[in-house]
Design brief:
The complex is a heterodimer of chains A (671) and B (195). With 671 residues, chain A is an all-alpha fold. Among the domains of chain A are: 106 residues, no CATH class; 193 residues, Up-down Bundle (Cytochrome C Oxidase, Chain A), CATH 1.20.210.10; 56 residues, no CATH class. Helices cover 61% and strands 2% of the residues of chain A. Chain A has 19 helices and five strands. Chain A has a three-stranded mixed beta sheet, with no helix packed on it. In chain A, a hairpin with a 6-residue loop joins strand 2 and strand 3. In chain A, 55% of the residues are buried. By secondary structure, chain B is mostly helical. Chain B has one domain: Cytochrome c oxidase, subunit III, four-helix bundle (Four Helix Bundle (Hemerythrin (Met), subunit A)). Helices cover 76% and strands 0% of the residues of chain B. In chain B, helix 1 runs antiparallel to helix 5. The chains are: A mainly alpha (671), B mainly alpha (195).
C-alpha cells in the first residue's frame, strides 16, 4: 500500500541521517513542517481528528472554568444576604458563566465531535478545507483566551450574556469587560463561520461512493443542519457586535437612547442570532443520542427519515421564533401572537424526535451502558425542559416568568439536561474509537447518577423559585421576603446550591474516570467494535490512521457497517451475524487505495489566527498595536494564499539514501 | 492524479472552493441584511444634523455606481481570459477591474469628506452612524476585493497561483460580483428611495 505523504522527520531519524527539508518553492518563508509526534505537530496539524481532540480538551477546560463560575454563583445565593461576591463581581460571574458555557464549551465541544466524526461517518479522508479547519480552532482558542484575560485586566463583562442595550454602553459599564466580550466573541465567531463553511462543503462534496444524503448517520445530519444555522446566524451577531463595538470604541449612537436610538434593535439582532443558537447547541446532542440509542437497543433508529427531516424542520422554524425572548418588551399584539404560534409549532418536530427515540427503545434489547444512560437522561430531562419551554409560548404566562428563575430552570434543563447529557453520551460512546480504551462503566454509572441527581436538585427547585418571583441576575435575596412554608425560597435556594456541588462531584468523577482509564494498567485495549455499532466510523482502526480509511468503502445501505456484519437468513428471516467487525475491516482493507494524498501540515493557520487578538488588544489599548496586528494579518494571509494546500513533491528533499526505497513519494503510512 | 491536489472528484461535481465561496457569500447576505436593516430603521428618525435628502449628491453617486458596475463587466472579461489561459489579457482585465474599483472607493472617500464638511459626522446622529457603517462596510469589501485583484495580478505574473488559475480568478470574480450586487441594493435603498 502506498500512502503518499510528505517525508517525515521520523523516517529521517530512523535512517540515522536527518534530512533537511528545504524551504518550499511556492512559499519561501517557512519550510513545510513534516510529520512528527512532538508537541510541534499539534501546532501545525491540519488533521481533523487531532483538531477534534484539541477542540475537546480546550473546551473541557473552559467547561471547568464555567463550572467554577456557576459554583460561585450558587455559593452566593445559598443563604440570605450572600457575601461571597460583591454585586459587581456577581454581575461579571453570571455573564461569563453563560458566555463560557455557550461559546467556549458547548459550541466547541460540538465542533470537536463534528470535526472528528463527520469525515469518518461519511467515509471521507479529511475535511474540505483542512487549513481553514485548523485556523478555526486557533481563532476559537485565542478568542476564548482573549475573552478570559479580561478577568485580569480590569474586570470581565457584566451585562449578562445577551448584553442588552443601552445597559452595555460605556456609561453603565465603564470597564473594558464588554470590549473584551464583544471582540472576543467576534474572533470566536470567525471560527464558527469558517467551521460552518468547511463542514457543509465536506458533507455535501466529500461523501463516499453510495453515501446518499438519506444514508448519512443522524449525527452528521444534525451537525449539517447546525452548520447551516451557524452560517446564517453568525453574520447577524457579527453586525450586532460591530454596532456595539463602534458605539463603545468610536462613540457611534446606535444604542444611545438620548440620540433617539431604539434599544430593541439590539434585542432583535441578538435574538435573530440567539434563537437559532439554542438549536445550534441542542441539535448535535440530538444527533449523538440518535446514534447511541439504536446501538444499545439493538434496533435501527425508528423513522430515520422523519428524524432527519424533523431536525431540518427545527432548523427552518428556528428562524421564526426569536421574538418569544422579547414578549415583555412591548412588541404589540400581532407580533406576540405570531411568535407564540411559531413557538408552539416548533415543539412539534422536537416532540416527533422524542417519540422516535422512545419507539426505537420500544421492544429493543436494551443495554444500559453509561452512554445509553446519558442518552435516556437527555430524552427525559429534555422533555421536561421542552415542556417548560412550550409554556413560554403562552405570552401572558411568559410575561409573568420573564427574568425569573423559571427561565433559568427551563434553559438549564434543555442545555444541561439536554445538550450536555448528549455530549457525555458521546464521550462514553466514542471514547474507545478515539483513544482505544473504554471508559470504566462502574465509574461511569457513578458519574451519571451523580449528574442526574445534582442536575435535578439544582435546576428543579428553580421552577419553584421562579414562580415565587425570584428574579434572575439578582446577587442577594433577603430572609424578610423569602416567603413561608413550602414556598420559602431560602429552603429551595439551599437545595439548589447543594445540588450544584453534587453536579460538580459528578463531573469530577468523569475526570477521575479518564485518569483511571488511561493510567491504570488493568484497563485493556478496547475491541475494534465494542458496542456492536452501526455506522461507518467504526469500520476503521481505533484510533483511525491519519488517512482514516485504507480503502474508502462503497456504501449500499443506511447503517452500512451493520449491514456488512449482519444479514437476513432467506429461509427463517432471522437476522444473523455473517461477519465480525475484524472480518469486515480485513475485507475492506484487502483492497487498499493507492496514492492517498493527505493535506500537508502548515504554520499559517495559527499565525493568521494569532493576528486577531493582537488587533483586538490594539483596539482597546493602543491603536499602533492594532496597525501592527493588521499588517501581521495581511502578511500571514498572503503567506497562506501562496502555499498550496498539499505541498508539491519537489517542496521536499528526497529522503536519505536507503530510506523509502529511493522513491520520494512512497512512504510508510502514518499512524 | 498523484500530483494534482485540486482536481478531486466531488459528490456534487462543484469544486470545494467554489461551493465554499457560495456559502460564504450566502452568509455575507445576512451581514449586509443586518446593516441595511439598521440603516432603514434609523434614517430620518431624528432631526439632529443633516438629513439624507439634504446631503446626497445623486448624480455624483450615480456616476461612481456606474463605474463599479462596469468593473463587473471587466471582471467577466478577466475570468474569460483566464479560462482561455490567456495570462496577458487576464492581467489586463484584472488591473482594469481594480482601477475601476479604486475609482469607486476614491469616490466614496470624496463623498464621506464632503458629507463630513457639511456637518454629518459619524457620531452626529443615528443617520450618520448607520450611513457610515453601512457604506463603510461595503467600501471595505470593495477594498478587500481590490487587494485580492492586485494580488492575483502579481501571482499570475509570477505563476505562483496554487491549483487551478482559472478557478481562482473565477472565485475572486464571484466575490467581486457579489459586492457589486450589494451596491445595487444599497444605492437603491439608501440613495434613491426618499425617506
Amino acid at each position: 500500500m502506498a500512502i503518499i505523504e510528505r517525508p517525515s522527520t521520523e523516517i529521517a531519524v530512523a535512517g540515522g541521517a536527518t534530512v533537511g527539508v528545504k524551504p518550499s518553492e511556492a512559499l519561501g518563508v517557512f519550510k513545510r513542517p513534516g510529520a512528527s509526534n512532538s508537541w510541534r505537530d499539534w501546532i501545525v496539524t491540519v488533521d481533523h481528528k487531532k483538531l477534534g481532540i484539541m477542540y475537546g480538551v480546550a473546551a473541557f477546560v473552559f467547561f471547568i472554568i464555567g463550572g467554577i463560575e456557576a459554583l460561585l454563583i450558587r455559593l452566593q445565593l445559598m443563604g440570605p444576604d450572600g457575601k461571597v461576591l460583591s454585586a459587581d463581581q456577581y454581575n461579571q460571574m453570571f455573564t461569563m458563566h453563560a458566555t463560557t458555557m455557550v461559546f467556549l464549551f458547548v459550541m466547541p465541544m460540538v465542533s470537536a465531535f463534528a470535526n472528528y466524526f463527520i469525515p469518518l461517518q461519511i467515509g471521507a479522508r479529511d475535511v474540505a478545507f483542512p487549513r481553514i479547519n485548523a485556523f478555526g480552532f486557533w481563532c476559537w482558542l485565542f478568542g476564548g483566551i482573549f475573552l478570559n484575560t479580561s478577568w485580569f485586566l480590569g474586570g470581565a463583562a457584566d451585562g449578562g450574556w445577551f448584553m442588552y442595550a443601552p445597559n452595555s454602553s460605556t456609561l453603565f459599564s465603564p470597564s473594558h469587560g464588554i470590549d473584551f466580550w464583544v471582540l472576543g466573541l467576534q474572533i470566536t465567531g470567525i471560527a464558527s463561520l469558517t467551521g460552518a463553511i468547511n463542514l457543509i462543503v465536506t458533507v455535501l462534496n466529500m461523501r463516499a461512493p453510495g453515501m446518499k444524503l438519506m444514508r448519512m448517520p443522524i449525527f452528521t445530519w444534525m451537525a449539517l443542519v447546525v452548520q447551516f444555522l451557524l452560517l446564517f446566524a453568525m453574520p447577524v451577531i457579527t453586525v450586532a457586535l460591530f454596532l456595539l463595538s463602534f458605539q463603545r470604541e468610536f462613540d457611534a449612537t446606535f444604542f444611545d437612547v438620548a440620540a433617539g436610538a431604539d434599544p430593541l434593535l439590539w434585542q432583535h439582532l441578538f435574538w435573530i442570532f440567539g434563537h437559532p443558537e439554542v438549536y445550534i447547541l441542542i441539535l448535535p446532542s440530538f444527533g449523538i443520542v440518535s446514534e447511541v440509542i439504536p446501538v444499545f437497543s439493538k434496533k435501527p433508529l425508528f423513522g430515520y427519515p422523519i428524524v432527519a427531516m424533523s431536525g431540518a424542520a427545527i432548523g427552518f422554524v428556528g428562524w421564526g421564533v426569536w421574538a418569544h425572548h422579547m414578549f415583555a418588551s412591548g412588541l404589540g399584539p400581532v407580533s406576540v401572537a405570531v411568535f407564540s404560534m411559531a413557538t408552539m409549532a416548533i415543539a412539534v418536530p422536537t416532540g416527533v424526535k422524542i417519540v422516535n427515540w422512545i419507539m426505537t427503545m420500544w421492544g429493543g434489547k436494551l443495554q444500559f451502558t453509561t452512554a445509553m444512560l446519558f442518552a435516556i437522561g437527555l430524552v427525559v430531562q429534555f422533555t421536561i425542559g421542552g415542556l417548560s419551554g412550550v409554556t413560554h409560548s403562552v405570552a401572558p404566562s411568559d410575561t409573568q416568568q420573564t427574568d425569573t428563575y423559571y427561565i433559568v430552570a427551563h434553559f438549564h434543563y434543555v442545555l444541561f439536561g439536554g445538550a450536555i447529557f448528549g455530549l457525555f453520551a458521546g464521550f462514553y460512546y466514542w471514547w474507545p474509537k478515539m483513544f482505544r480504551k473504554q471508559l470504566n462503566e462502574g465509574l461511569g454509572k457513578v458519574n451519571f447518577w451523580l449528574m442526574v441527581v445534582g442536575m435535578n436538585m439544582t435546576f428543579g427547585p428553580m421552577h419553584i423559585l421562579g414562580l415565587q418571583g425570584q428574579p434572575r441576575r439578582m446577587g442577594v435575596w433577603t430572609e424578610a421576603r423569602a416567603g413561608e412554608g413550602f414556598f420559602n425560597i431560602g429552603f429551595w435556594n439551599m437545595i439548589a446550591s447543594i445540588g450544584s456541588f453534587i453536579l460538580a462531584v459528578g463531573v469530577l468523577m468523569f475526570i477521575i474516570n479518564i485518569v483511571y482509564t488511561h493510567k491504570s494498567k488493568r484497563v485493556p485495549i478496547a475491541p475494534l467494535d465494542p458496542w456492536d455499532a452501526r455506522s461507518l466510523e467504526w469500520m476503521t482502526s481505533s484510533p483511525p490512521a491519519e488517512h482514516n480509511f485504507d480503502a474508502i468503502p462503497t456504501v449500499n445501505h443506511l447503517d452500512e457497517f451493520f449491514h456488512r456484519k449482519y444479514a437476513e437468513d432467506p429461509n427463517s428471516h432471522e437476522i444473523k451475524q455473517v461477519a465480525s467487525a475484524e472480518e469486515v475491516l480485513a475485507d475492506l482493507n484487502s483492497r487498499p487505495d493507492e496514492h492517498i494524498h493527505m493535506p500537508s501540515r502548515s504554520y499559517w493557520p495559527i499565525l493568521v489566527a494569532l493576528a486577531l487578538p493582537i488587533i483586538c488588544y490594539g483596539l482597546i489599548y493602543n491603536r499602533l498595536l492594532m496597525a501592527v496586528g493588521a499588517a501581521f494579518l495581511l502578511l500571514t494571509m498572503f503567506g497562506w494564499a501562496m502555499e498550496p494546500s498539499t505541498a508539491s513533491d519537489d517542496d521536499f528533499d528526497p529522503p536519505a539514501p536507503g530510506e523509502g526505497g529511493g522513491h520520494t513519494k512512497e512512504l510508510a503510512p502514518l499512524g | 492524479m498523484a500530483d494534482t491536489a485540486v482536481a478531486h472528484h466531488t459528490t456534487t461535481g462543484l469544486s470545494n472552493n467554489k461551493l465554499g465561496m457560495w456559502l460564504f457569500l450566502g452568509s455575507e447576505c445576512l451581514l449586509f441584511g443586518g446593516l441595511i436593516s439598521t440603516y432603514m430603521l434609523y434614517r430620518g428618525r431624528t432631526n439632529t444634523g443633516p438629513q439624507p435628502d439634504q446631503i446626497y449628491d445623486i448624480p455624483f453617486t450615480s456616476v461612481s455606481s456606474f463605474v463599479l458596475l462596469m468593473s463587473s463587466l471587466t471582471m467577466v472579461l478577466a475570468v474569460s481570459a483566464a479560462n482561455r489561459k490567456d495570462d496577458r489579457n487576464t492581467n489586463l482585465w484584472l488591473t482594469v477591474t481594480a482601477i475601476l474599483g479604486a475609482t469607486f472607493v476614491g469616490g466614496q472617500v470624496y463623498e464621506f469628506t464632503a458629507f463630513y464638511r457639511e456637518g454629518l459626522g459619524f457620531t452626529t446622529s443615528l443617520f450618520g452612524s448607520s450611513f457610515y457603517t453601512l457604506t463603510g462596510f461595503h467600501g471595505v469589501h470593495v477594498t478587500v476585493g481590490i487587494i485580492m485583484l492586485m494580488a492575483l495580478v502579481g501571482m499570475v505574473r509570477r505563476n505562483r497561483i496554487p491549483g487551478s488559475k482559472a478557478e481562482t480568478v473565477e472565485l475572486v470574480g464571484l466575490y467581486w460580483h457579489f459586492v457589486d450586487i450589494i451596491w445595487i441594493v444599497i444605492f437603491t435603498l439608501v440613495y434613491l428611495i426618499p425617506s
